[in-house]
Amino acid sequence: MSETPFLVTKFNKALHERGAFSCGVNDLDHWIKQSASSMVKDGKAAVYCLTDRKQLKDAEATGTKASVLGYYAICAHSIEPVDAPSLNKRFVHPIPAFYLTAIAVDASVQGKGVGTDLVVDAIQRCVALSEQIAAHAIVLDVREDDDYARRLSFYQSIGFEFINPGHDTKRVFLKMADAKASFR
Ligand SMILES: CC(C)(COP(=O)(O)OP(=O)(O)OC[C@H]1O[C@@H](n2cnc3c(N)ncnc32)[C@H](O)[C@@H]1OP(=O)(O)O)[C@@H](O)C(=O)NCCC(=O)NCCS
Q1: pLDDT of residue 157
Q2: Domain that holds residue 64
């Protein structure tokens, strides 16, 4: 199988150039530039960056940096059963989950499947982790602005569903069992 031109690796300040990152949503640009390091340091999020594969290899070899073309952030999470009627109703205690804090793709490569690949990478990472620490679902909140409908259809095309249909238009989930079946 041929290699993709991109590589997703754990965020490394010394290797990932974030200065020019621009996805069209200011706070997501700001987050990777200004907040990612402290979020990682404080144990609030794990961050993974997508770069051009060759550029990253060259950067590693020469001690330079590769431009971030996309990123996502994940953290541990729990959901109150009352907030999640779509999930297993037998839960009494908070439902263990992974939370996709942020995902963004640089405008220069949007619309080419990179965002889908990044979400699939995040799902596969969660599936692997769930073999060691139980999690029932992956959840995220869809940003509600003018692009909400496009964004929602992006997540739905990957398999995410509303967690509280008719009441919560932001929060969507993918059950870990379905993630394992489709994306392992
Ligand atoms: C949403 C996003 C991550 C998708 O990445 P991508 O590489 O463009 O996605 P793909 O090429 O795999 O899939 C294309 C689909 O993504 C969605 N999408 C593409 N550009 C988008 C944008 N600027 N805003 C919202 N959704 C977008 C659409 O559903 C699109 O399908 P369509 O062309 O049929 O409408 C990317 O557009 C982005 O970073 N947007 C700005 C930041 C953002 O909205 N992050 C998510 C917050 S919840």
Answers
A1: 96
A2: 6-183
